[in-house]
Design goal:
Biotin_synthase; disordered N terminus; biotin biosynthesis; iron-sulfur; Biotin_synth/BioAB; alpha/beta; 15 strands; 11 helices; transferase
Length: about 425
C-alpha cells in the first residue's frame, strides 16, 4: 500500500526515477495518488502533490509539501523503480517531521515576457503579498540559508566584464595571484562552518579552468565536503568533461551567472557570448550538479532587461536551485564605476519577481548588501529572499560584518537555516 487508507488525512508524495520511460510511471503514480490523498477515508480530494522529475545522479528527491497541508497529516515517501515500489516510509507531521523542498526545483509554467512584466508592475503591496504567499508555500519564511564565499584565485582574468575588478582589461590595481593552496582553502572553510555557514563557495578569476588546475580543484572539493559543508564553485566556463569531473568529485553547486538580459549582455561583456553562458549551464545540469545562476542589477540596464533576465532563468529546462541577485558595487577603474545605482524599490521588485517565477529556488541577496539599509534588506527578505553571503568580503568587495548580520537577524526574528 502507498498509504494508510484508514487514516483520515493521508497525503502521498512520490519519489520517481529519471529515465526515458518515466511517463508511464508518472501516470501510474498519479492514479495511485488520486486514491490515496483524501480528507476522509472515502472521498479523494485531489490527485497528487509535487512529483519530482529529471532526477539525475541521486535518482530521487523529496517533493515539497506546503506547510498548510502538514498539520495532522501523514506522509508516504515512496521511491519507485521502473517496475516496483522500492521503499515506503510513513512520517507523522504531528511528530515534527518536515518534508524538505525537492532537490531540483522545476519550472511550474513557461513564463512570457508579458506575463512577467505584468507581475513586476503590480502595485508594490500586491506584488509583495503575492511573493510572500509563494514563499510561504515553499519555505519557512523566517529561516535564511548562510553561505560564505572565498576567492581562491584573484585577478588576471582575460574576460572584460565591465563590472569586475579582477579583469586584466581594467586599471583596478588588483594584483593577480596563483591558485590558493589546498590546506589554506580548507582552513578557511573550517572557519566558515564554525561561523554558521552551511555552504562554502569558491571562486577563481578564470575564463575557464586549465587542465593543470583540475587536480587541485578536485582535491579541494573533496576536502571541503569532508567538513560537512555543501560545496559551490565558480571557475568560469566549463566543457562537459570538466563538469563531469567536478560532479564526480562531489561538487554540489556550480555558479555561472548570466548577469543580465540577452539584449543588454553585449554592453556588459564582449569576450564571451550569452550563448556561452547557457552552454556552461547545460553542461553543469547534464553532469548532475545543481545550478546557481542569477544576475547583477544597476549596470545601466532597463527594467525590461531585469525582467527579461528572470524570464531566461525561469524558462531554463530546470530552474536554478539558487538564484543570486546582486546589486552592482561600483569599482574604481572599471567601465561601470559611475553607473547610476538601482533604486531600493526597483531592487525589491526584482527579488519579489524572482520568488514568484522560481518558487522552489533559493533567492540569495549577494553582492551589494553593504550598501543596503536594514530596512531594504528586511523588505528583500519579505519579498522572498532566503539566502545571504556572510563574511566581511565577497571576492574583492566588502560585505556586512558577521555581527551586523546577527543583529539584523535578531531584530527581524530570523534564524539561520
Amino acid at each position: 500500500m502507498l498509504a494508510d487508507a484508514s487514516h483520515p488525512q493521508t497525503l502521498c508524495v512520490g519519489l520517481l526515477p529519471f529515465g526515458a520511460r518515466r511517463r508511464p510511471i508518472l501516470q501510474r503514480c498519479a492514479d495511485a495518488f488520486a486514491m490515496c490523498f483524501s480528507y476522509s477515508p472515502w472521498r479523494p480530494r485531489c490527485s497528487y502533490v509535487g512529483i519530482a522529475r529529471r532526477l539525475r545522479q541521486q535518482r530521487h528527491a523529496a517533493a515539497y509539501v506546503p506547510r498548510s497541508l502538514r498539520t495532522g497529516a501523514r506522509f508516504a515517501i515512496v521511491r519507485l523503480s521502473r517496475r516496483n515500489v522500492r521503499r515506503c516510509v510513513m512520517l507523522d507531521a504531528n511528530d515534527g517531521e518536515t518534508i524538505p523542498a525537492k532537490e531540483r526545483p522545476q519550472r511550474s509554467q513557461r513564463w512570457t515576457v508579458e506575463d512577467a512584466w505584468a507581475a513586476y508592475r503590480l502595485p508594490f503591496n500586491d506584488l509583495l503579498f503575492r511573493s510572500q504567499s509563494v514563499h510561504r508555500e515553499h519555505f519557512d519564511p523566517n529561516r535564511v540559508q548562510l553561505s560564505r564565499l572565498l576567492n581562491i584565485k584573484t585577478g588576471g582574468c582575460p574576460e572584460d566584464c565591465g563590472y569586475c575588478s579582477q579583469s586584466s582589461h581594467h586599471a583596478t590595481a588588483l594584483a593577480a595571484s596563483k591558485l590558493m593552496e589546498v590546506g589554506k582553502i580548507v582552513a578557511e572553510a573550517r572557519k566558515a562552518k564554525d561561523s554558521g555557514a552551511t555552504r562554502y563557495c569558491m571562486g577563481a578569476a578564470w575564463r575557464n579552468p586549465k587542465p593543470r588546475d583540475m587536480d587541485a580543484i578536485v582535491e579541494v572539493v573533496g576536502a571541503v565536503k569532508e567538513l560537512g559543508l555543501e560545496t559551490c564553485m565558480t571557475l568560469g566556463m566549463l566543457d562537459r568533461d570538466q563538469a563531469d569531473r567536478l560532479s564526480a568529485a562531489g561538487l554540489d553547486y556550480y555558479n555561472h551567472n548570466i548577469d543580465t538580459s540577452e539584449r543588454y549582455y553585449p554592453s556588459v561583456i564582449s569576450t564571451r557570448t550569452f550563448a556561452d553562458r547557457l552552454d556552461t549551464l547545460e553542461h553543469v545540469r547534464e553532469a548532475g550538479m545543481k545550478v546557481c545562476c542569477g544576475g547583477i542589477l544597476g549596470m545601466g540596464e532597463s527594467e525590461r532587461d531585469r525582467v527579461d533576465m528572470l524570464v531566461t532563468l525561469a524558462n531554463l529546462p530546470e530552474a536554478p536551485e539558487s538564484v543570486p541577485i546582486n546589486m552592482l558595487i561600483p569599482i574604481p577603474g572599471t567601465p561601470m564605476a559611475k553607473a547610476t545605482p538601482i533604486g531600493p524599490i526597483e531592487f525589491v521588485r526584482i527579488v519579489a519577481l524572482a520568488r514568484i517565477m522560481m518558487p522552489a529556488s533559493f533567492v540569495r541577496l549577494s553582492a551589494g548588501r553593504s550598501a543596503m539599509t536594514d530596512e531594504m534588506q528586511a523588505l528583500c527578505f519579505f519579498a522572498g529572499a532566503n539566502s545571504i553571503f556572510v563574511g566581511d568580503t565577497l571576492l574583492t568587495a566588502g560585505n556586512p560584518q558577521d555581527e551586523a548580520d546577527r543583529k539584523l537577524f535578531r531584530r527581524l526574528g530570523l534564524e539561520a537555516l
